[in-house]
Amino acid sequence: MRVDPRRSRERMVRDQIQGRGIHDSAVLAAMLKIPRHEYVDEALHAQAYADNPVPIGHGQTISQPYIVALMSQALEVLPGMRVLEIGTGSGYQAAVLAEMGAKIYTVERIRELHLQACKRMQHFKYHNVYCKLDDGTLGWPEQAPFDRIIVTAGGPIVPETLVDQLGDPGMLLIPVGPSRQAQELILVRKEDGRIKQENKGAVVFVDLVGRHGY
Ligand code: SAH
Questions:
Q1: Mean pLDDT over residues 128-134, rounded?
Q2: What is the best residue among 37, 58, 83, 108 to mutate for testing ligand 1's pocket, by most ligand atoms within 8 Å of CB?
Q3: Active site includes 63?
C-alpha cells in the first residue's frame, strides 16, 4: 500500500491535533508541512502518521504527534527565541520548533541518532538548528541562557543544571517521574528570579539517561 503523505498529514492534524484541542496556528502549520515519514525508517513510512510513537532504533522512539503538538504549544515559542532541546532523536521535534521560527540547540547522547538527525536537518535546510552529541542533562552551558528548554525523555528529577541555564523569563518542559509508567509533564517557569512548577498531566517517554537522569 502506498501512503499519500500530504493527505496523511492533513488527517493527522485534523483528527489527532486539532481534534484534541491544540489550536496554536504555528504548531498546526509546522505539523502540516513537515514530512514526518522522512524522520523514520523507510519500512515504517506507513506508520509515521499513526496516533502513537514509532521506533527509530536503539530502543528509542519519535514521539506521538499529539505529544509533539502539546509540548510545542505549551512552550509558547516565539520567532527568534533560543530553545534548548534534550533528546534530538529523529529531529522531528526540533524541526517543528525550527518551523516556528526559533533557534534550536539540540543534544542527543546516542551517536548514530545524532549523526542521522544532523544530516536530516541539513537536508531539510534547517540552518537554525544546531546539533550536539553529549549528555543533555548537563545542558549546553556555552550557549546559555535559553528562552525555552524542552526535554523529550523522562527523568527522575528536574535537573538543576537545566533550570540554571534557563533565562529569566523562561520556561522549561520535562517529563518527570519515578518510572516510565508514572511520568508527569512538568512546566517550570522562571520569572523575576522566582521558580514556579505546573503539572500538565500524565505522559509516557523513553528514559532520560545521564548524570542528572536515570
Ligand atoms: N525529540 C525526539 C524524541 C526522541 S526520544 C524526536 O522528535 O524524535 C528521546 C531521545 O532522548 C532518545 O533519542 C534518547 O537517546 C535521548 N536521550 C536520552 N537521554 C539523553 C540525554 N541525557 N542526553 C541527550 N539525549 C538523551
A1: 98
A2: 108
A3: yes
Alpha carbons 17 and 66: distance in angstroms, whole number: 6
Selection from 165, 55, 97, 163 nearest residue 174 by Cα: 163
Q: Determine which residue's CA is closest to atom 19 belonging to ligand 1.
A: 208
The three cell numbers locating residue 35: 514530512
* Block residue for cell numbers 534550536: 104
Separation of CA 106 and ligand 1 centre (Å)? 10
Quote the CA–CA distance of 124 and 136 in Å, as a whole number. Answer: 24
Going from the Cα of 45 to the center of ligand 1, the distance in angstroms, rounded, reads 21
Residue 103 cell numbers, joined? 533557534
pLDDT digits (tens, 9 = 90+) for 174-199: 999 987 778 999 999 999 999 999 99
Contacts of 210 (CB under 8 A, 6+ apart): 109, 135, 136, 137, 138
Mark 34-51 as b/e (b = at least 16 C-beta within 10 Å).
Answer: bebbbbbeeeebeebbee
Chain centroid offset of residue 15 CA:
21
- Going from the Cα of 26 to the center of ligand 1, the distance in angstroms, rounded, reads 24
C-alpha cell at 168: 529569566
Q: What residue ranges define each of the domains in the chain, with the CATH number in brackets? A: 5-203 (3.40.50.150)
Which tens digits make up the pLDDT trace of 61-102?
999 999 999 999 999 999 999 999 999 999 999 999 999 999
